[in-house]
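To close the chapter, one final illustration. This time we ask the reader to focus less on the individual chains and more on the assembly as a whole: which components sit near each other, and how the overall shape emerges from the parts.
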Amino acid sequence: MDFKFAIVRIPGRSVINGLTEAGLGKPNYEKLLRQHQEYCKTLESCGLQLIQLPPLEMFPDSCFVEDSAVVNKELAVLTRPGALSRRGETEYVAPIINKNFKIVKKIYSPGTLDGGDILQIGKKYFVGLSKRTNIEGATQFKKIQEEVGFTVSFIHLRDFLHLKSGINALDNKTVLMAGELINSPFFIEYDQIIVPSSESYGANCLNINGTIILPTNFPQLLQKIRNLGYVTKEIEMSEFQKLDGGLSCLSIRY
Ligand code: CIR
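The assembled structure is written out below.
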């Protein structure tokens, strides 16, 4: 996918108290910061210009900036995050979104929507109905995007925190899918790479201008992607994994 910019937020010290169901223990802040710097360098090495926002200590999860806005070439949508402790994050992303997008829409109460639940493949959007994104939020999103020519489908999630925890596109015809999303009828038309259950976290990967970025230590998945001829780069994500955060969550790309 072709992108020029990425918005990222530097993690504050409070990140170690971020929401999690992973059961992997608390992250080490210094290590997490190094992993974030490596993430930023990797995006730059793929040709992106970074817009770095400062840490927001009052919002431990605010480095997972993807959840607060969904953007495309037509417009931006400021979300209303599903977790109460994250709801205020949008306000702090709004200024940079308003500066960079001509049309900016919003998700309103009682709707909730996290950017991690939004998967775009070409002119199609798939929206995860999850613990964080409710039907009201998804319906508002659908209306906004249909007006600018996208089709929008809803997918009920049972296990994954977000839709993109379990499925991502390598390009406009290939998806990487894990867990409950394997065999999903929504993706029949795509070439499918099945992520082994022991490597499920690796399903959250990114295509930045032709390079597939994936987390380290998922050797079977790496091999499958390389066998298809993709150029890959791996990044250490252990400290973000402890917070249920993946590669896509750490930036808003456009
Ligand atoms: C949360 O539970 O909200 C954060 N600890 C992780 C958010 C991950 N975001 C994403 O997958 N888009």
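The first strand starts at residue 5 and ends at 9. The first helix runs from residue 29 to 45. With these observations in hand, you are ready for the problems at the end of the chapter.
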